[in-house]
Amino acid sequence: MAADIALYERRLTREISARKQAEALLEQKSLELFAREAQERKLAELALRESEERYQLLVELSPDAILIEAGGRFIFANAAAVRLFRAQEPADLLGYRMLTLAAPSCRADVEAAVRDLVQGRFCPTVEEQAVRFDGTIVDVAVTRLAFDYRNKPAIQIVARDISERKRLETQLNYLATHDTVTGLPNRMLLMDRLRQMIMDAKRRHDQFVVSFIDLDRFKWVNDSLGHEAGDTLLKIMSRRMSSCLRESDTVARIGGDEFVLLTQDAGNREQTMQMLGRVMAAVSMPLTLDGHEVAVTCSLGCSTYPDDGQDAEALLKCADAAMYRAKEMGRNKVQIYDMELRSQTDKRVRLETDLRHAVERGELVLHYQPQVDLQDGSIVGVEALLRWQHPELGSIAPAGFIPIAEDSGLIVPIGEWVIHQACMQNKAWQQAGLPPIRVAVNLSPKQLSAPGLIDFIAQCLSTSGLDPSHLELELTESASMDDPDTIIPLMHKLKTLGVRLSIDDFGTGYSNMQYLKNFPVDSLKMDGSFVREITTDSRSLAIADAIVAMAHRLGLQVVAEMAETEDQVMLLASHGCDHVQGYYFSRPVGAAECAELLHAARLPLPEKRRWQCTVPGRLPVPSRKAVKVA
Ligand SMILES: Nc1nc2c(ncn2[C@@H]2O[C@H](COP(=O)(O)O[C@H]3[C@@H](O)[C@H](n4cnc5c(=O)[nH]c(N)nc54)O[C@@H]3COP(=O)(O)O)[C@@H](O)[C@H]2O)c(=O)[nH]1
Predict the structure, then answer these.
(1) Could you tell me if 414 and 549 lie in one domain?
(2) Which string of DSSP letters, residue by residue, matches 259-318?
(3) Which of 385, 529, 558 is the pocket-test mutation for ligand 1 (most atoms within 8 Å of CB)?
(4) What is the complex's ipTM, to 2 decimals?
(5) What is the pLDDT of residues 323-379, one digit of tens each?
(6) 561/429 same-domain check
(7) CB under 6 Å to ligand 1: residues?
(8) How remote is the CA of residue 555 from the centroid of ligand 1, in Å?
(9) Number of structural domains, the chain?
(10) Which domain, by its residues, includes 382?
């Protein structure tokens, strides 16, 4: 029993000691935990304080205005807000309502945005206008966010000053929609207004007039008095036209010397005609430019909505067609779009539609006209001339469809077909054993500005296997001179392909000799108008003579076109012209017939070979008396 008690006491003592140890350990751990918690709390408080300070610093330093509205009043504003509203200090803004500082035109939107936020909806950033303390208006991009601020619902407003961006936008928009010389609306704004007028007129069952105006002697002013005088003239004309119209009407400048007027007609045709008469009279009043008295007239064509067209493009096309008719009638005229013009336009629209399918339907063919060397009658080349075999209208000459192809842009795919076909045909003649010659292809201005021309020609030469020196590209003189800064680099690129280049219709396009010197061309094609008169008009002969002399001095060959008679050919030869093309030798013929001519290799020269060459490369010039050939 005593042993049991002793055992029990020992166990109790052990247990008490263990418990004490446990309690001591627990206390120690509790103390450690408490200390750690206290430390962590301290760190968290520190972090929070730091974060708040950081946030406050960010808000203070933010370049955007930051304001907090609670209970319908601003309770906080940062320094940027003070700057934005042109206040003195943040306190100036406190107490104001968001709505009070919004521009009147934006207040409804601000109210709607606040309602959305209160109902828990997200509000995207919006562009608004705010009123500054000095009463001026500022453009701002505003973001609003609902949050709890010191346990109260609040709205944080971040506003960025976008007035500089808006100013630039307005400036760019003005530049994109106005002509820089006259300040008038340009084509883009005109089309916008025209479409708007159509919508209004449709709704109100109204009509209005579109007038197309072309100044008759603008090119002359530009060429003879210079571009500055040309610009002054345009400014004066735009002011004169505007002064004849009402505020609500539009005068636009859509091209060099092309203006368009949009005027309400209200069914009173007589009034409209009187107004157009006033415009013409105002334009034709004499003016002084650079000390020269100048009188410029205009040709005016007009169309009416809704009779002549339902859309902007149709109305402009009709007015343009009428203007061309006015020009044909002798300038300084008004032409109203009428039934006759309508049937012409319809025909043109039909041709354009058919022309779109002409290549794929195989309706285009090339004819070839020989170019003959005047020394020995050999055929040195042929010019490829396009013909359209229309299924119903029969063969159409280029004059009947090239202008349509030009206007519609179809000239680019059609021209590509011509280049490809001419290369393939020339190579086929060579493979058939015919003497190698060059084939000349006409390039229109639109083709010259189309991207990918160089690559396309290179591809045609490689597909056909034609030596580049057997392809000649004819560029018209006017196209070359219109934009020489673009054309000269293009010509150089074409020359790197190894092809020949010639200037077509030479003598008609006001050549600038400075540019001509820099054109990397091989020959000049003397315009047919000189050739036609060479035997009857000594001035035409003088020009032909000068063209030949100048070309030779520049190391270029001369091809005279449209030579029809023996006398013309003889005279051209005696004046040193190198090659001649024209009905005298052959009309343009199909590929098979041309092969026969090439087979013969030479065409007979005129019998009377009075002009027989005595000096190689330069033929003797006859006396002026020989001009009137019997
Ligand atoms: N961009 C392209 N333009 C082309 C292409 N094919 C032709 N054209 C252009 O059309 C113009 C008219 O061509 P066409 O009706 O074929 O007239 C040519 C000859 O047939 C004609 N000619 C030739 N010899 C005489 C003649 O002795 N008398 C006379 N009255 N007419 C004659 O002259 C035209 C040749 O012109 P040119 O090109 O200036 O050498 C034509 O001018 C081309 O511009 C084409 O594929 N693409």
Answers:
(1) yes
(2) EEEEEE-TT-HHHHHHHHHHHHHHHTS-EEETTEEE---EEEEEEEETTS-SSHHHHHHH
(3) 385
(4) 0.94
(5) 999 998 888 899 999 889 989 888 888 999 999 999 999 999 999 999 999 999 999
(6) yes
(7) 369, 383, 385-386, 397-399, 402, 415, 418, 442, 444, 504-505, 525, 561-564, 582-583, 588
(8) 25
(9) 4
(10) 351-626
